[in-house]
Structure to design on (301 residues):
């Protein structure tokens, strides 16, 4: 992927402040976050898209470090003791260990379920301070507070979305969860699985929304992938068998699925002003949600 001038400037600014060599940078991902591999130091640099709370980024590094050291849990780990950097536009750059990915490796829902079952069995003894209670739809709420052109999101849609965030939160607050509260990843979908350096051992990455909440939150992305992105029933069945819980029987299932629908607006929303394909995806998803369509498949990014 090509690195534009703005991204290159952000990268060089962050690296200059932390003594990291940006030479030969490769852009690996540019969606909810921008991710570079820097071969000179063999480090991964992760830059948030839009403003971010640097304390939350520090917390994710503290939590993943604690999980790896204390519980030998396969979480992506921060790079040495390098501190994150707040950039001029409010974005935050953080530095992580790099893991070379194999050319062909397909992750399964059972792979994800096994890691989540293990994560959800970890007690809170000695966990880093500052892990907050789960607050649904924070990422969408933050994105809606930014300057969004009417061509991307008309005022009627903006008002409706803000009202729906409140309504979904109220519905979730009334659910009597069957699984216990505890440490959750917060965005546990199969796309956040990584191989550990060309091996079959897997890591769980992208801990931006780690918190304390109902464990069902970490299960819903698997069922949502089946509903919206074309996964078959074998996908959810394999997860349920490995984790030993059938989420579709949960009293909060449909509310969780609706919440996940709204979460999937955030990424395309932030890129819609400059890239028509994201604007088209946003429109498809939002129109489907507003019409009450609970079964339509969505295009992926």
């Amino acid at each position: 992927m090509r690195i534009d001038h703005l991204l290159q400037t952000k990268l060089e600014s962050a690296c200059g402040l932390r003594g990291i060599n940006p030479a030969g940078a490769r852009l690996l991902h540019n969606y909810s976050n921008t991710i570079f591999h820097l071969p000179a130091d063999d480090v991964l640099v992760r830059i948030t898209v839009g403003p971010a709370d640097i304390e939350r980024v520090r917390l994710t590094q503290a939590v993943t470090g604690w999980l790896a050291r204390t519980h030998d849990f396969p979480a992506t780990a921060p790079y040495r003791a390098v501190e994150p950097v707040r950039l001029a536009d409010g974005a935050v750059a953080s530095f992580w260990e790099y893991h070379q990915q194999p050319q062909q490796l397909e992750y399964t829902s059972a792979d994800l379920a096994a890691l989540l079952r293990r994560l959800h069995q970890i007690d809170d003894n000695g966990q880093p301070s500052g892990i907050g209670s789960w607050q649904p739809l924070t990422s969408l709420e933050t994105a809606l507070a930014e300057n969004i052109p009417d061509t991307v999101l008309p005022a009627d849609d903006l008002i409706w979305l803000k009202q729906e965030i409140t309504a979904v939160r109220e519905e979730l607050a009334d659910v009597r969860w069957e699984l216990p509260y505890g440490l959750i990843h917060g965005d546990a979908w199969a796309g956040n699985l990584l191989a550990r350096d060309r091996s079959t051992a897997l890591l769980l990455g992208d801990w931006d929304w780690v918190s304390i909440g109902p464990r069902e939150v970490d299960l819903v992305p698997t069922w949502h992938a089946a509903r919206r992105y074309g996964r078959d029933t074998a996908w959810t069945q394999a997860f349920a068998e490995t984790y030993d819980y059938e989420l579709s029987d949960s009293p909060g299932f449909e509310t969780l699925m609706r919440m996940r629908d709204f979460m999937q607006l955030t990424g395309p929303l932030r890129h819609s002003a400059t890239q028509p394909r994201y604007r088209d995806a946003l429109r498809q998803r939002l129109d489907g949600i507003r019409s009450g369509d609970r079964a339509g498949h969505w295009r992926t990014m």
Remarks:
- Strands lie at 26-30, 33-38, 43-48, 85-86, 92-97, 181-184, 193-195, 202-204, 211-214.
- The radius of gyration is 19 Å.
- Residues 155-173 form the longest helix (19 residues).
